[in-house]
Design goal:
The structure is a homodimer. The first copy, chain A, is of the alpha/beta class. Helix content of chain A is about 45%, strand content about 20%. In chain A, strands 3-2-1-4-5 form a 5-stranded parallel sheet, with helices on both faces. Chains A, B: This is UspA domain-containing protein. Chains A, B: GO terms for molecular function: AMP binding. Chains A, B: Pfam families: Usp.
């Protein structure tokens, strides 16, 4: 096989929902590790990773209930805090790529993750999309919805869903 | 990345439904080409391909309507013809792997493809499963069912579905 242009793998990544755990969700970092181990392997120059983080505008609704908004600046500082959290997340993945030597890009969008991911697939046209999943049962899925299921159906590129390993399930399996 | 054991990719492959076209279906060979180009690339020693062909017992029902069965041997010759067709299919993929130098295994099972593929995933435990799909719309899918959709939901490993390229759709899109 001649090596042409690198295979462009888009990865949807998100923050952990666990309080005080300021990093990538368990399923995001699991999907990233899996992609490196099983797909990229030693062929560092053959792949490029494209990290997309979608921030949900209401994501911090509960945190914000105890906040007091007295001036327009209070909202600005909230926005910049959200932005900082998203950047911190992408920094984690970009740093890991840099350490390995694999080429990458990362960016943040706001909106409904499943819709935005499919929209960005259309725009960026990766070779395929990797998404992590909590691997919940059908009963749990009813309440939380799953981004991976939606993307598998609607994204205009092949999609591979990496389920969280059973031994990494947190105390509350809805957490990630 | 240190190279450990090869990544084992299972591929469900089937014959073309187009009369007089004795080879792999368009979607199977498309999924195979895609896997080589986008995943394996030049890293031949990093991967092993596992080809599973599931023969549907009734698959040749229509052909058999014009046949006359006069002795038990007639059934035996039919069975050996089916077997020969399945072997011919696997030979195509094994030959292509041999030409490239990528390690592979191939085997045939009888039954309902979606059930058998999921059962074999459980038994063989590949790192992931690749299945081709005709990429039919929801209306067409109602009538033909899709193996890829079932496997995405039920296989105990990550699944990547490779849709047939639009420019490869045969005259009747149900054909493959």
């Amino acid at each position: 096989m001649a090596e042409g242009e690198a295979t462009r793998i888009m990865m949807g990544v998100n923050e952990s929902t666990i309080k005080g755990y300021p990093h990538a969700s368990i399923s995001s970092s699991g999907a990233f590790d899996w992609t490196l181990q099983k797909i990229v392997r030693s062929n560092i120059s053959g792949f490029k990773l494209l990290f997309l983080h979608v921030q949900v505008p209401d994501e911090d609704g509960f945190d914000d209930m105890d906040s007091i908004y007295a001036s327009p600046d209070d909202f600005k500082s909230m926005e910049s805090r959200d932005k900082a959290r998203g950047l911190h997340l992408l920094e984690y993945f970009v740093n890991r790529c840099h350490a390995i030597g694999i080429s990458c890009e990362a960016w943040i969008k706001k909106g409904d993750p499943k819709e935005v991911i499919c929209h960005e697939v259309k725009r960026v046209q990766p070779d395929f999309l990797v998404v992590g999943s909590r691997g919940l049962g059908p009963f749990q899925r009813v309440f939380v919805g799953t981004v991976s299921e939606f993307c598998s159906k609607h994204a205009e590129c092949p999609v591979i869903t990496i389920k969280r390993r059973a031994d990494q399930t947190p105390q509350d399996p809805i957490d990630d």
